[in-house]
Design a protein that fits this description.
The complex is a heterodimer of chains A (338) and B (667).
Chain A: E1 5-16, H1 20-26, H2 32-37, E2 41-52, E3 56-60, H3 67-74, E4 82-87, E5 90-91, H4 97-106, E6 108-111, H5 123-133, H6 138-151, H7 167-179, E7 185-189, H8 197-214, E8 217-222, H9 225-231, E9 234-239, E10 242-247, H10 249-254, H11 259-265, H12 270-273, H13 276-279, E11 281-282, E12 287-292, H14 297-306, E13 311-315, E14 318-323, H15 325-332
Parallel strand pairs in A: 3-8, 3-9, 6-7, 7-8, 12-13
Antiparallel strand pairs in A: 1-2, 1-4, 4-5, 9-10, 11-14, 13-14
Helix pairs in contact in A: 5-6, 5-7, 6-7, 14-15
Chain B: H1 2-5, H2 7-33, H3 49-63, E1 65-66, E2 69-70, H4 71-95, E3 97-98, E4 107-109, H5 114-128, H6 131-146, H7 150-180, H8 182-197, H9 200-211, H10 215-239, H11 243-252, H12 256-267, H13 269-289, H14 298-308, H15 311-340, H16 350-353, H17 355-373, H18 389-428, H19 431-463, H20 467-497, H21 499-514, H22 521-528, H23 532-556, H24 560-568, H25 573-606, H26 615-625, H27 628-659
Antiparallel strand pairs in B: 1-2, 3-4
Helix pairs in contact in B: 2-18, 3-27, 4-7, 4-10, 5-6, 5-17, 6-15, 7-8, 7-10, 7-13, 7-14, 9-10, 9-26, 9-27, 10-13, 11-12, 13-15, 14-15, 15-18, 18-20, 19-27, 20-21, 20-23, 20-25, 21-23, 22-23, 23-25, 24-25, 25-27, 26-27
The chains are: A alpha/beta (338), B mainly alpha (667).
């Protein structure tokens, strides 16, 4: 059922300071103490992740946790001190500058926290920019740019300059621009952090809508746990440069790896992350046409509570168990199923 | 009063008293004890560095071969390259095309008519901003023709037109190279520092030797003078481009050339335009000064009037320079603002979109045709010239006749109670003592590195036999800087604390800053004739600007909460100023002092024209004799004085910033 890995980080390290590379050659797995003693600053420590085809992979961490450095290592905006970055199985770190330019031109797209729009170009020119850089004819590039602009809902604004748009609209331009050359791998570096809460919510919906249509492989960086929960297929939590846990939102909430993760998950409404399959009575009998096991509790709570008897749970059409009102109410009251 | 309990304060005071005593009485004791060499560096000990430099230069010009061509041929080739476009612009703007060289040659084609050029700048003004700017520059150019300064102004302008693109393109390329290659950056930096501190006249000398007397040498000097800020600004602006935008460039797959020209340079555009404005203003300043090596134009008019003591002529040409400078400055500023905002593209057919170009083309043709028939349309007729020369002559004469005593009294007062005692103090200092003190100050503020650097630079000045002249330089610069600070800092504080005063002072400062340094000499010489006092006033006027500007900026940038805290604590306005604003503005004020010293030193060389006896005079004499060694060594001595002052003051400003927590001790 798991899709093949698109991008794999193997034992990736990034240390800042003089002599970082040779230090890592000498001791391949140093702990914080030895790193600090050598006068180096750790940004990413021993990152091992695989990002699967078509998933939204969120890297979540507070500021200074190394999440931005890690995503920049993946695209080689920052050169890692050690490790391998496998893209379709080949190591990006061994690619020449020329090959990297080709890969970035055709296979990768990136959205930035502060939009990074070119102030001297119009919306249309900004979106067409990556295409013109590749040497495409202006007319063709602009026609394609118009398509993406329409896709992000900015039709009619193509002649505006970035400074004439609101923050949310500017980020729509940023998104359109990163999609113009149809990348396979889409990096989003805190794309909504600079926006107001209301706009942020709207943009998240918009993002999910786009992903529903495009099904890209996505690496999404955020410091906002709620955002991570909302968008992610899987989440990696980072602290002090190290990845603490990689899991689905549901697993994170149910099985936090340590107190640090639990601290984040404490205030997450359980009904929004937990699925029916987790609290059902396996093999139990129930009434009704069947509730999908993958449905979130919040979606079915009302239906289950109002029913007089346990309801049937199905997985891919086959009955797998039943769910009763008491189990749902326990979740709603915040009492963990465990 | 706790400062007086600090032991280093007592040491400092003791040293000061000792120094003063030495300067007063030292010479007498030295005679008795046989230490005269410490006061008067013996001629026999002087290292003949200037002779070596001159010899090297001679060798370079006369004997160096690069395989196929000699060094001289190389410089001639550069001359030829620069001369072509220069001659073309000069012909177009000022002199017209001739059928041969010399005075008897016939004009084949006249230059652009004054009407065409004025219309052109009006159109530029309108294009760059609005009708108000168009009117300002239009009137400025009209003034030039009505007051008979047209041809000189156009010669000056053609030098600027040629020098600016070379300076901008050269500066931009060097800046980009320095941005790309940190090693190149590190090599370039000290060179730029030196280029900006060596007085202009000093490198006029080798250029004069290499390129000969004439407009080309002047252009080369102008480019060298005007380029360094462009290099610096380019490197800084590119470094300051938002890192996300750089990341975006990489992620889009830009090649290095695409990164530079499609991402970095456009993104840094508004800062780069500031650099272009600087190049324009510095070029104008230098073209005026370079009239000494044959640039011609308005600068030459001022110079020759100064030499003839022709008051009216000097004033008129001086005002023309001021007006040209203001017009050029406003125009280039408007262009740089325009470049950093966006104009909607005008719609309509070609005739409407290029309306200004078509209008100018029409005026050009009309003026040309009409000019063939009525000379009025070609050049503004001489019989209608207005002249204010007589007016200036008379006013200066009037002032001199009626207020001679007053002027003389002011001058004597300053000379007797301020200038001469300071001069005596500096000249009385034994050089080994001064060397030790300078090294000590360096050690106090910047550790042993600064101490060593100061000592070596001072030693250079001593051993090349420049000590006495250097001391006169220090004295003249010192008194001017003190006076400029005494006037400038209170003005700056006033500008920062009082809105209306701030507006007025701002306009005055802006105008003072656009004026070429040469201009300051004219009125002062007319009133006080030549000498140290005149030089001092000119220097004070020129060096005032940074003192005012930095003081105002320092006071303004004190954090408002701190001022509010003072108000809440019940401070009077005076207490607010002396207890909160001024102390916190100290680092900025020190930076202003630094700039004031730099400007004072660069002006010092120009005041050599009014007969000072310092290093500036040495350079000026070297220039008139085309003596490379003498000029360069004296120039280096001035540069070293500037560098010593700069490093000491920057170090103390830094320590003040660290004390206030505005900067990290290790940052």
């Amino acid at each position: 059922m798991t899709a093949p890995a698109k991008l794999v980080c193997k034992n990736v390290w990034k240390l800042y300071g003089a002599g970082a590379d040779s230090f890592l050659d000498a001791n391949p797995t140093p702990d914080m103490k030895t790193i600090r003693a050598a006068g180096l600053i750790p940004a990413v420590r021993k990152a091992d992740i695989d990002i699967r085809e078509g998933e939204i992979f969120v890297i979540m961490g507070l500021s200074g946790s190394g999440k931005s450095t890690l995503v920049r290592c993946m695209s080689r905006l920052i050169e890692p001190s050690a490790g391998e970055i496998l893209f379709h199985g080949t190591d990006l770190l061994k690619a020449s500058d020329k090959e990297m330019i080709e890969i970035r031109r055709h296979k990768m797209g990136m959205v930035f926290q502060h939009f990074a729009l070119l102030p001297h170009l119009t919306v249309l020119q900004n979106v067409a920019f990556p295409l013109t850089i590749q040497g495409q004819k202006r007319k063709l590039a602009e026609a394609r740019a118009m398509e993406v602009i329409e896709l992000v809902g900015l039709k009619g604004r193509e002649g505006y300059y970035p400074r004439e748009l609101s923050g949310g609209q500017q980020q729509r331009v940023g998104i359109a621009r990163s999609l113009a050359d149809e990348p396979e791998l889409w990096f989003l570096d805190e794309p909504f952090s600079a926006l107001d809460p209301l706009i942020r919510r709207e943009m998240q919906d918009e993002f999910l809508r786009l992903q529903g249509m495009l099904a890209k492989t996505i690496v999404f960086i955020t410091h906002d746990f709620d955002e991570a929960i909302r968008l992610a297929d899987r989440i990696a939590i980072m602290k002090d440069g190290a990845i603490i846990q990689v899991a689905t939102p549901e697993e994170l909430v149910l099985n936090p790896a340590n107190d640090y993760v639990e601290e984040f998950t404490r205030h997450v409404p359980r009904d929004k992350v937990m699925s029916v399959g987790k609290i059902m009575q396996v093999g139990g009998k129930g009434a009704g046409q069947g509730i999908p096991a993958s449905a979130k509790i919040v979606e079915v709570a009302e239906q289950v509570i109002e029913a007089d008897e346990p309801l049937l749970v199905v997985d891919e059409g086959k009955p797998v168990g039943s769910i009763n009102a008491a189990a749902v109410i326990r979740v709603l009251l915040g009492k963990s199923a465990r | 009063m706790s400062t007086f309990r600090h032991p280093s304060t007592w040491i400092f005071i003791t040293l000061l008293v000792l120094t003063w005593l030495l300067a007063r009485m030292g010479a007498g004791w030295a005679e008795a004890t046989g230490l005269a060499w410490a006061f008067d560096y013996p001629k026999a000990w002087v290292i003949p560095l200037k002779d070596w430099v001159s010899a090297a230069m001679k060798y370079l010009v006369e004997d160096v071969h690069f395989g196929f061509f000699t060094f001289k041929e190389f410089t001639r080739a550069i001359s030829w390259l620069i001369e072509q476009p220069y001659n073309l612009t000069r012909a177009l703007l000022a002199e017209g095309f001739m059928d041969g060289p010399g005075r008897r040659a016939n004009q084949i084609l006249p230059p652009f008519s004054w009407i065409t050029i004025t219309a052109c700048v009006i159109a530029l003004g309108h294009y760059a901003r609005d009708w108000i700017l168009a009117a300002i520059v239009g009137f400025a150019f009209l003034y030039l023709s009505v007051f008979g300064q047209w041809e000189s102004a156009m010669i000056t302008l053609s030098s600027v037109i040629i020098a600016v693109p070379i300076g901008v393109i050269g500066g931009l390329s060097l800046g980009i190279l320095a941005y790309r290659h940190p090693l190149f950056d590190r090599m370039l930096k000290p060179l730029l520092d030196l280029m900006q501190t060596i007085p202009i006249f000093a490198y006029l000398v080798p250029i004069l030797v290499l390129f000969g007397f004439g407009p080309v040498a002047a252009l080369v000097a102008t480019v060298i003078y005007a380029m360094p800020p462009m290099v610096r600004i380019t490197t800084m602006a590119l470094k300051a481009v938002n890192p996300e935008i750089k990341d975006f460039g990489v992620m889009t797959g830009c090649t290095q050339a695409q990164m530079t020209w499609r991402i970095l340079v456009p993104a840094a555009r508004s800062s780069l335009m500031v650099g272009v404005n600087q190049v324009i203003m510095l070029s104008l300043n230098m073209v005026i000064i370079a009239s000494m090596i044959g640039a011609g134009g308005l600068g030459f008019d001022v110079l020759s009037s100064l030499r003839r003591l022709d008051i009216g002529g000097g004033f008129e040409a001086g005002i023309a320079i001021v007006i040209l400078a203001i017009a050029v400055d406003r125009l280039s500023q408007a262009f740089s603002e325009r470049a950093s905002t966006h104009q909607p593209k005008s719609k309509g057919n070609a005739l409407i979109r290029y309306k200004r170009s078509f209008a100018i083309l029409a005026i050009l043709v009309a003026a040309f045709l009409l000019g063939r028939i009525w000379p009025f349309f070609q050049s503004f007729p001489e019989e209608y010239w207005l002249t204010t020369g007589a007016f200036w002559d008379n006013s200066v004469k009037y002032l001199n006749i009626n207020y001679y005593d007053a002027f003389e009294a002011i001058k004597l007062f300053f000379l007797n109670y301020f200038l001469l005692p300071t001069k005596r103090f500096f000249l009385g200092l034994p050089w080994p003592w001064a060397l030790a003190i300078i090294a000590l100050i360096g050690w106090r503020f910047g550790g042993w590195k600064l101490a060593l650097m100061n000592a070596l630079m001072t030693l250079f000045i001593v051993t090349t036999g420049m000590w006495e002249k250097a001391m006169i330089t220090v004295y003249l610069c010192g008194v001017s800087v003190i006076l400029a600070s005494l006037i400038g800092i209170p003005l700056g504080v006033l500008a920062a604390t009082n809105r209306r005063a701030g507006g007025i002072i701002g306009v005055i400062i802006d105008t003072l800053q656009t004026l070429p340094s040469f201009v300051y000499l004219i009125p002062v010489v007319m009133l006080f004739r030549i000498g140290d006092f005149t030089a001092m006033i000119a220097i004070v006027l020129y060096a005032l600007v940074p003192a005012v500007r930095y003081a105002a900026h320092g006071v303004r940038s004190v954090r408002p909460e701190l001022v509010e805290a003072g108000v809440v604590a019940g401070c009077t306005r005076w207490q607010l100023l002396t207890r909160i604003r001024l102390p916190l503005a100290l680092p900025e004020v020190l930076l202003g002092l630094n700039q004031t010293i730099m400007l004072a030193l660069s002006m010092l060389v120009i005041t050599a024209l009014v007969g000072t006896r310092d290093l500036g005079q040495e350079v000026y004499i070297a220039l008139t004799k085309a003596d490379t060694g003498r000029g360069l060594v004296a120039g280096l001595a001035i540069a070293f004085i500037a560098i010593i002052a700069d490093r000491i003051i920057s170090a103390s400003a830094r320590s003040a910033r660290i004390r206030y927590g505005l900067e990290d001790a290790h940052g």
